Amino acid sequence: MSHLSPAVQSLIQEKGLPDSRRLDTLAWPEVGKAASAPDSVLLLPIGASEQHGPHLAINTDTAIAQSLCDYASSLSGAFVAPAMPYTVSAGHTTKWPGTFSLSHETFIQTMAEWTAWAVSMSWTRVLWVNSHFGNDASLRVALDKARLTHLGQLQIGLVTTFQISEDVWKDFSSDAEDLHANKAETDLMLFLYPDSVDITTIEDDPDRTEGTVFSYPVAQTSLNGLTGSPSQASAEQGRELFLKMASALAAKVETAKTESPPLPPEQWSALPELTS
Q1: Domains by residue range for the chain, with CATH
Q2: Beta-carbon contacts of residue 239 (< 8 Å; ≥ 6 apart)
Q3: Tell me, what's the pLDDT at 1?
Q4: Whole-model pTM?
């Protein structure tokens, strides 16, 4: 039932780690116990369903977020919620088939409702783990709403996988800052799901946004739906990058298990409840 990436499953077995703690494999009594445990952390993988150039599958961002959460779970004991594959991909426009996008407003509301259900189960420590750049603005708004709406009930944070450390961002942006389906994403997918990568259709397309002052959707910047040099990718580089990212995520989970607000409850617990 786990549907792990074969590469992640192999890493778990190779290193003698416990299985990923995915909620979608548990019955409701086990989910309840997980939520109420004092140091439980819940990870929500957030991806996208969108075109990823001619060589990568449309589930690329979701597959990366899911796989990172799965392996970080094995390393840290965090629980993993079912992934969120439909998010904000409007910037890819309708030029290439394969993109399914929510509006920014719908996605923000979706995150608010998802979080309310998590709180109703007694989850108190949640990390949204996002692997799609187009989600960033909406997630920051949703996070601000969630932390105020559930003040005192929930500690919640946002982790952007490709910016989880300076070293990781350097790897991702080495061939393009306005990256998409580039070397790093192709590295990861060659490692995680090699059968999903069509290496015969890889065709590099440069980043044309350097020095620009306006913001442009992908249809105005890319000829084939990607930006970067995926031809330079390899599974070996993907494994190295994946381990770096997953270790950084697991380290954040370890911190999240015991982190408390910088100030004690008497400084903020009596504030009026905010619901918007």
Answers
A1: 6-174+242-258 (3.40.50.10310)
A2: 7, 191
A3: 43
A4: 0.97
